[in-house]
Each structure stands twice: as C-alpha cells, then as structure tokens.
Amino acid sequence: MLVGHLGAGLAAKAVAPRAGLGTLVAVAFLLDILLWLFVTLHLEGASVPGDFAERHQLAFSFPWSHSLVAALLWSAVAAFLWSWSGGEGKYFAFAPAVIAATAFSHWILDFITHDADLPLWPGGPAYGLGLQPPAALVVELVLAALGFGLFLSRTRLSTPRRIAIGGLTLAVAALTIYGDTTDTTPGDILNLAGISLLTIFVIVTIAAVADRET
Ligand SMILES: [Zn+2]
Fold first, then answer.
1. Cα of 30 to ligand 1 centre, how many Å?
2. Ligand 1: distance of its center to the CA of 31 in Å?
3. Could you tell me if 185 and 48 are in contact, meaning their C-beta atoms sit under 8 angstroms apart?
4. Which residue pairs, CB below 8 angstroms and at least 24 apart, start in 157-164?
5. What spacing in Å lies between the alpha carbon of 96 and ligand 1's midpoint?
6. pLDDT tens across 156-207, in order?
7. Ligand 1 centre from 106 Cα, in Å?
8. Which residues does 71 contact at the CB level (< 8 Å), separation at least 6?
C-alpha cells in the first residue's frame, strides 16, 4: 500500500491543521520506513513469492516494524518524540494523540490489504484480511481520495499549493496503480528497500515543502 498511507497523512492534517504535513505524512509511512531500514540491516526480510504476478504482494517477515505490539510502540514513540521536539504547532492537548493515531493507521490499512502475515507480537500468531488485488486497489484509492478531500475541506493553503499536493496525490496514486498491475517482479530486495526509502523520502519532502506557506 502506498497512496492509502498518504491519504491517512492528509486526513490527519485536516484534524491537526497546524502540524506540518511533511511530519504527518512521514508518520503515516513510519512503519514502512522502519521496515525498509530493518531490511537493509538484515533485521527483517522481504521476498518475492511464486504468486507475485497475480497478487503483486511481497512476502514479509517484519516482526519489529509491523507486528501489532511493535506498531503500538512505534506510534507511542512517534507521539513522544514529536512532543519532546517541541511538536510544530503543539497547540492542543490531543495533538500527540493525532500523531500516534496517524502512525497506527498504517497498521490498520496494512491489515486490510496484507495476507495473514502481520503478527500480533514478534513470533506471535499472524493475521491480515488479504483483500484481493482489484478490490484492495479500489479501497486504497478511495481512502486516498477521502484523505485528500478531508485535507482540502480544512486547509487554508493557497491554490498553487493545493494543486501541488493534489498533483502529489495523483502521482503517488499512479505509482500505486503501476505497482499493483505491472508484471515486472522486483529483483534484488536491497535495491527495492533503497528505492522504497527514496520514494517515501521524496513524497514526504514534497508534502513538507508544499505545506510551507511563505
Ligand atoms: Zn506497511
């Protein structure tokens, strides 16, 4: 899932308008940032299963980034770090809760689309609704559209900045559709980790810059 997580970040911006969009989007992708970092450190793993051409789903072993307990813990860490660092726009008591909820939304969204590979705790039983490709993609695109709609309904950004964020959402949606329909199987997993981290970095940077009204 890619654009669905961006949608979660955009929706969070509607709830906490004075928190930075870059921060919120980074937090929405936090578990995947950790996953790909842990893959490069060989702490977690990803492999290409035999049915990749039909399902477009990698097989993951990701207890430290994507187990339920780990997700709850990382969400709390994100909220704590955000508050501790001064929390851009720490203007209402439940702002850290918005950060934690945004981080945890990642696990819920992954739970909808992933096969039963999300463990409750490292080594524990694993679950996932495993929504099949066309339905999973439709759900993800609808979530992204809802997130963007919510964002638009609350933002006070100028029109060019709204267009930039709309363009970003469309580009990431296109990338998601490509990823879910292409027949090319990813080769080297370390390469994929690097590309994924770079993609998330570019998405977060564009969101942060577009949100910075001068
Ligand atoms: Zn994930």
1. 8
2. 6
3. yes
4. 157/210, 157/211, 157/213, 158/213, 161/210, 161/211, 161/213, 164/206, 164/210
5. 21
6. 899 999 999 999 999 999 999 998 888 778 888 999 999 999 999 999 999 9
7. 6
8. 31, 65, 103, 104, 106, 107
Tell me the C-alpha distance between 81 and 101, whole Å: 14
SS3 88: coil
Rounded Cα distance, 100 and 81, in Å = 10
The model scores a pTM over 0.85: yes
Q: For residue 153, give Cα distances in angstroms to 19, 106, 147, 156, 167.
A: 16, 23, 10, 9, 17
Enter the tokens of residue 77. Answer: 């860490």
How far does the centroid of ligand 1 lie from the alpha carbon of residue 3, in Å? 12
Contact 22, 205 (CB under 8 A): yes
* pLDDT tens digits for range 63-87: 999 999 999 999 999 999 998 887 6
